């Protein structure tokens, strides 16, 4: 009986350890282009934390790049019903969005149709807006919000 309990516990530990390892991979993989830290932050602290890691808040040049970023997000346990800061904002030029890390004007956008008329200066990626219906689970869109709100974020290797 004692050996059966020992084997049961060992199997449980291995099973739980495997699942946790899979979800943590994107957060601490030193070879990945994108890293999704395991905490929420306002946009400014997210920018600071990525810089601390020797990285930058993510930039999104096109649809293929966004798909790669979403893949990194979906490798974590945070993909459902949450939102993620990007490096885009209009802080220096209201209504004209730039990537903070380069100062380059954003040329490719993936705005949600619900985005127009929203307040806020910092761009985030999401499949769901708080209090509203889910978008297609494969369709990650851009929204803006006040930069002081706490959200998850994605860092990109420089």
Key attributes of the depicted protein:
Mannose-Binding Protein A, Chain A, alpha+beta, single chain, 3-stranded antiparallel beta sheet, CTDL_fold, signal, 5-stranded mixed beta sheet, Putative secreted protein
Beta-strand segment tally: 8
For the biggest sheet, the summary is: 5 strands, mixed
Gyration radius, to the nearest Å?
18 Å
- The percent range for strand residues is 15-25%
Looking at CATH, the homologous superfamily is Mannose-Binding Protein A, subunit A
Mean pLDDT: 82
Q: What class would the helix/strand composition place it in?
A: alpha+beta
What are the segments in which pLDDT stays under 50 over at least 5 consecutive residues? 5-26
Distance between the termini: 55 Å
Enter the CATH topology name.
Mannose-Binding Protein A, Chain A
Can you count the helices?
3
Identify the overall geometry.
Answer: globular
> What is the CATH-assigned architecture?
Roll
Q: What does the model show?
A:
With 158 residues, the protein is α+β, with helices and mostly antiparallel strands. It has one domain: Mannose-Binding Protein A, subunit A (Mannose-Binding Protein A, Chain A), CATH 3.10.100. The protein has three helices and eight strands, in the order αβαβαββββββ. The strands form two sheets. Strands 3, 4, 5, 6 and 7 form a five-stranded mixed beta sheet that branches. The chain has a three-stranded antiparallel beta sheet with strand order 1-8-2.
